[in-house]
Amino acid sequence: MEILAKGKYIKISPKKARPVADLVRGKNALEAKVILSSLPQSAAFEIKKVLESAIANAENNFSLEKEMLTIKKIMIDGGPVAKRYQPRAKGSASMIKRRTSHIEIILEGEVKTKKVDKKEAKEKANDKIKRNETKSVNKTESKNNENNFNVNLNRESKAPKMFRRKTGQ
User: Fold this and answer.
1) Of the chain's two ends, which shows fewer C-beta atoms within 10 Å, N or C?
2) Whole-number Å distance between alpha carbons of 70 and 3
3) What CA–CA distances, in Å, run from 59 to 31, 64, 69, 92, 111?
4) Which pTM was predicted?
5) How far apart are the first and last CA of the chain?
6) How far apart are CA 102 and CA 48, in angstroms?
7) How many CB atoms lie within 10 A of CB 16?
8) pLDDT for 92-133, tens place per residue?
9) What average pLDDT score do residues 131-138 get?
10) What is the structure's pLDDT at 40?
11) Which of 57, 52, 50 is CA-nearest to residue 103?
12) What are the extents of the domains in the chain?
């Protein structure tokens, strides 16, 4: 099964990010994550964020194990370019191009399905029901304990006070 994650409009040049992507292409996802966290390039941080997103997608949406995931494809394409101008000598100006990137990572992993017998499924359902019943019983017991505690406090408050201030009356 293929899992896709995209990072768009990332403020790094595609030319600087592609060599970093080449280091992790085809590797195990967790191994790639360790490699990216140890690299000093700023592109490694951005690629790692997208990779973590892809791993999270695989775990939450498709119930895949992250140990079994590999990077099938990693693409870094150019995004929109912001053009700025910087003043130069003799009244001229030169253009500065601030490039952005779109990072796309496709992970590949196997879906492990487990055959469950009908008897086992019923037993699990019964266990869940029993757990819920015990939780409700525990809640009612705790409420009763709280009520007893409140009654004890009220009794103490009605007790006569031994030390009262004497006013000038």
Assistant:
1) C
2) 10
3) 17, 5, 10, 55, 11
4) 0.64
5) 89
6) 14
7) 14
8) 999 999 999 999 999 998 876 555 566 677 777 777 777 766
9) 64
10) 94
11) 50
12) 2-108, 114-159
Whether 80 contacts 14, CB under 8 Å: no
Q: What pLDDT shows up at residue 125?
A: 73
Cα gap 161→73, rounded to integer Å: 79
Q: Given 3.90.470.10, 3.10.180.10, 3.90.930.12, 3.50.50.60, which CATH number is that of 2-108?
A: 3.90.470.10
Q: Tokens 């700025």 correspond to what residue?
A: 84
Question: Helix H segments across 7-164?
Answer: 14-24, 29-38, 42-62, 118-157
pLDDT at 151 over 60: no
For tokens 């099938």, name the residue: 72
